[in-house]
Design goal:
Number of domains: 2
Helix content: over 70%
Order of helices and strands: HHHHHHHHHHHH
Structural class: mainly alpha
CATH superfamily of the largest domain: Tetratricopeptide repeat domain
Radius of gyration: 24 Å
Shape: globular
CATH topology of the largest domain: Serine Threonine Protein Phosphatase 5, Tetratricopeptide repeat
CATH architecture of the largest domain: Alpha Horseshoe
Distance between the termini: 41 Å
């Protein structure tokens, strides 16, 4: 029996983009499923923490700017009224700094690093191969390591497995995701491109999504947008996520 990867549905549920039927189904899945409930709570806490971090950072920045502005005004006043132009100049500079800081901080949430962190979740291995892979010891052990979040060990074994079975697209998918976790993005990109170019496998949608995330992480904006547009114009399960993400990086 195949395990459902709920990551996509959790994202849609939190974003409020589910229709009534899908929402009713998901809430039924939540009922009595403590693992799924905890995963949903964790995702909400992460989103809330990131939002609070941005607000706190903004508040601290503005406090520092305001203190600097007050200090300059006090200093100017000690030299008498003839220094009024200096006060005005200082106030103008402070205003520009506040406006500029507001712009930078409010857009900080759309930085490549933040967008990547908020959208990247390692694809869950269902526990059984979807593509009829021969379960060699290397593959089985690699996926055990993957499930334990040992992505360095998983990538090493999957690379060996692919050396003898280069057309094993499922193994290539998890190899690419493992290398993303290892911050080896050129290798990950190459792996996902191979899956997409193969065109006759079950993993193209997933590979397209992770390739777009690779481009975002490496700040390849043009390539990221091209990849996201390709997802948006398809029937991919990541279509809605791609739309939201594309709007944030334009």
């Amino acid at each position: 029996m195949k395990t459902i990867d709920y990551s996509y549905f959790i994202e849609r549920y939190i974003a409020g983009t589910m229709d009534e039927a899908e929402k009713k189904w998901f809430e039924k899945e939540l009922d009595g499923n403590s693992v799924l409930q905890n995963e949903l709570k964790l995702r909400r806490r992460v989103d809330s923490s990131l939002a609070r971090h941005d607000v706190i950072e903004l508040r601290n920045k503005l406090t520092a700017i305001e203190k600097e502005r007050r200090d300059r005004m006090i200093m100017a006043k000690t030299y008498g009224e003839r220094r009024t132009p200096l006060i005005r100049f200082a106030a103008a500079i402070a205003t520009l700094l506040i406006v500029g800081s507001l712009y930078l901080l409010l857009n900080h949430g759309n930085s490549p690093e933040n967008l990547y962190r908020k959208n990247f979740v390692a694809h869950e291995y269902p526990g059984e191969p979807r593509s009829g892979l021969f379960l060699s010891n290397n593959f089985k052990l690699a996926m055990e390591l993957y499930k334990r979040s040992d992505y360095t060990g998983a990538a090493s074994l999957l690379e060996k497995y692919l050396g003898s079975k280069p057309d094993a697209m499922e193994a290539r998918l998890y190899y690419g995701i493992s290398e993303m976790k290892n911050n080896n993005f050129p290798v990950a990109e190459s792996s996902f491109k191979t899956i997409i170019d193969n065109s006759d496998n079950l993993f193209i949608d997933i590979a397209q999504w992770y390739l777009a995330l690779c481009y975002i992480k490496t700040d390849e904006k043009s390539n990221a947008l091209t990849q996201l547009e390709s997802i948006i114009n398809s029937n991919s399960i990541f279509r809605d996520k791609a739309k939201r993400l594309a709007r944030k990086i334009k």
